[in-house]
Amino acid sequence: MKLGLIGCGKMGGALLRGVEQALGKGGLQVALSDVVPEAVAALGQCLRCKVTTGTPAEAAAVSDVIILAVKPGDMKPLCEALGQVPGSRLYLSIAAGISLTHLETWLGEKQRVIRSMPNTPALVGRGAAAFARGAKATAKDAALAAKILGAVGTADEVAEKLLDAVTGLSGSGPAYIYTVIEALADGGVLMGLPRAAALRLAAQTVAGAAEMVLSTGKHPASLRDEVTSPGGTTIAGLEKLEQHGLRNAMIQAVRAATEKSKALGA
């Protein structure tokens, strides 16, 4: 795979390292470009595959797939410049709030475009991403996007209109869960646990519970019932969560973040 990356920050770098791990160094050729030379050099040192560097146009010219990982405000001039590069290729954007319509207009009618929304746990190989394909992107392109994004977690194809909801759920979701972990740890400290132990227990509990949902395929409610004994400690805790509205707070957080995402992209 001839893969280019424009914007060598943490997220783009995580995607490249994940793809290299999945394909092996012999199955990947990478072209890197960034306005910060140190970022290019640092990422290049982390990769074992063949790496070239250059301008965005030079990276695009030698690549079949280009990951666009620059800030949303930099996307328009970048895409307009890339639209002048001869040939056709697949562009995979991970910039929040930039619509397929805008990307396709800026890049030109010959280019295939996929818009995606990854999240920060991709940095540790546990990301949750979704993507939508543009008018000219094929099923093969979608499979390739799923392979790239799935190299650092999960990847689901959705209609573009649902990417705002993805932003509200999984894009912003890690921040919600960090707050849950912090609150659980604070509860442990309140009950006498040392801070370090409370934080470790809280984080591992969240990670383990999530893995149970993913590995068993059971509904969370079913798994919850399995650990909720009549008259026991768990149901006492769950009663307090219901009294204080944890479930509704989470639902409203996703709603608010989704609506904010829509407003930013308007």
Automatic annotation (TrEMBL):
One of its GO terms (cellular component) is cytoplasm. It is found in: Cytoplasm. InterPro entries: 6-PGluconate_DH-like_C_sf (IPR008927), NAD(P)-bd_dom_sf (IPR036291), P5C_Rdtase_cat_N (IPR028939), P5CR-like_CS (IPR053790), P5CR_dimer (IPR029036), Pyrroline-COOH_reductase (IPR000304). It is an enzyme of class 1 (oxidoreductase). Keywords: Amino-acid biosynthesis, Cytoplasm, NADP, Oxidoreductase, Proline biosynthesis. Residues 2-97 form the Pyrroline-5-carboxylate reductase catalytic N-terminal domain. GO terms for molecular function: pyrroline-5-carboxylate reductase activity. Its main location: cytoplasm. NADP(+) binds at residues 6-11, 69-72. GO terms for biological process: L-proline biosynthetic process. Transmembrane segments: none annotated. It holds the Pfam family F420_oxidored. Its EC number is 1.5.1.2. Pathway: Amino-acid biosynthesis; L-proline biosynthesis; L-proline from L-glutamate 5-semialdehyde: step 1/1. It catalyses: L-proline + NAD(+) = (S)-1-pyrroline-5-carboxylate + NADH + 2 H(+); L-proline + NADP(+) = (S)-1-pyrroline-5-carboxylate + NADPH + 2 H(+). Residues 160-264 form the Pyrroline-5-carboxylate reductase dimerisation domain. Catalyzes the reduction of 1-pyrroline-5-carboxylate (PCA) to L-proline. HAMAP family: P5C_reductase (MF_01925). Belongs to the pyrroline-5-carboxylate reductase family. This is Pyrroline-5-carboxylate reductase. The lineage of its organism: Bacteria, Pseudomonadati, Verrucomicrobiota, Verrucomicrobiia, Verrucomicrobiales.
